[in-house]
Design a protein that fits this description.
elongated; five-stranded mixed sheet
């Protein structure tokens, strides 16, 4: 895991890698004056190929404000976001991939017309053309993306106004990942306890 960095991708490349279709709007947090809860999104990578990584994190199908370059993946990352007190669907996706350049010979059918006789109509003579086909091979260079592993996980939640949550997304490598919800409760003596969300 050491030294693996996240890729910074253009939206077009991101859509190609994730297979996303259509446009995804960005999530807009409620204002401080609106009823809301706070969700701390914690992302932990326990394993995965040592290749490029693209992440797709959404709340109610809106792209979450997750920084595109997080640094090394062997450190848990946490980002807080205000969420509305309404039924919510959290979606997390991680795609490990690498690019390849392939060279291959591709057949190309060539159509040729050639004079194969003449035809006389009245005082004028016209050349008659025939068609022949042959195959030529051309070397093509193809840039492609190879998906090493992809993991998608979802969680349904109904955040309560004024509550604090931890939404934890764990990626274990291969195509295995989980997302869990914990509610954060302050202790009178300081600190806090986490309980599984109801």
């Amino acid at each position: 895991m050491h030294g693996r960095l996240l890729a910074i991708l253009t939206p077009v490349a991101l859509a190609l890698v994730l297979g996303a279709g259509g446009c995804v709007r960005s999530y807009r947090e409620p204002s401080l004056s609106e009823p809301h809860a706070v969700a701390k999104i914690r992302v932990i990578y326990h394993g995965g190929p040592n290749t490029m990584l693209t992440e797709d994190f959404r709340l109610n199908n809106r792209e979450l404000p997750w920084p595109s370059e997080r640094g090394h993946l062997d450190v848990a990352q946490t980002e807080a976001v205000r969420v509305r007190a309404e039924p919510s669907l959290w979606s997390f996706g991680s795609t490990f991939w690498h690019g390849v350049t392939l060279t291959e010979l591709r057949p190309e059918t060539i159509v040729e017309e050639y004079p194969c006789g003449s035809q006389t109509i009245g005082a004028s003579t016209q050349t008659t053309y025939c068609t022949r086909y042959h195959t030529e091979y051309r070397t093509m260079t193809i840039n492609d993306t190879v998906i090493d592993s992809r993991c998608l996980a979802q969680l349904r939640q109904f955040p309560q106004n004024g509550a604090f949550y931890v939404i934890q997304y764990d990626v274990y490598g291969g195509d295995r990942c989980t997302v869990r919800c914990y509610e954060q409760h302050p202790r009178p003596s300081g600190g806090f306890d986490l309980t599984t969300c109801r």
